[in-house]
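SAMPLE LOG
Freezer: B-3
Tube label: C17
Construct: single chain, 224 aa
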Amino acid sequence: RSMPTSKAADRVAHALNIPMHETPTGWKFFGNLLDADMATICGEESFGTGSNHIREKDGLWAVLFWLNILAIRQQSVSEIVRQHWQKYGRNYYTRHDYEEIPIEIANQLMEGLQQQLPDLAGQSLNGYIVDYADNFSYHDPVDKSIAENQGIRIGFTDGCRIIFRLSGTGTQGATLRVYIEAIEDNPDKLFEDTQTRLKDLIELADSLAKIKSLTGRNVPTVIT
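STRUCTURE (predicted):
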């Protein structure tokens, strides 16, 4: 999976003792793993999914894959997902996009976050203890190349995390993508509203990055 993508797959891989790779965003990073037979299924949080039969995203394959699961399981998607949560826990996950931010403001925001990183580990932020804070670097296990500055990560001791990344896929300015994730294992708390469950982390992300004060945006352009 790409680094910003939910870590739900990690929990399954760990339980099944299957190797797992965390790459930067960008399908090219999956290509080496697929060619080297080091991955058989891969995907990004923007819903791109594929397997090692082709070196690219394959939406039709993903649909057929799910139809095959439904045919074998004889259950609805909702039933399968709920059983998955009950077995592995739920990763509450959301992405907040702030589109068309002036480039200089976007860079100022990311630089402000970068400057905070060395002092964050061990701090208690709104009750969340910071486990690590860095700018993600990827060491390709196939061609040994290194990709740096792939997104700012702030991870907490309870498994929650906040990720900030600038995207160049917009038509004007920059798009700030904020990824927020929390892990829930309590069977009584698996079916809450995502935005409600992540409210404290969403507010913490805004506070750390000064999103409202720097961009003037009170709400994201898009929430997924």
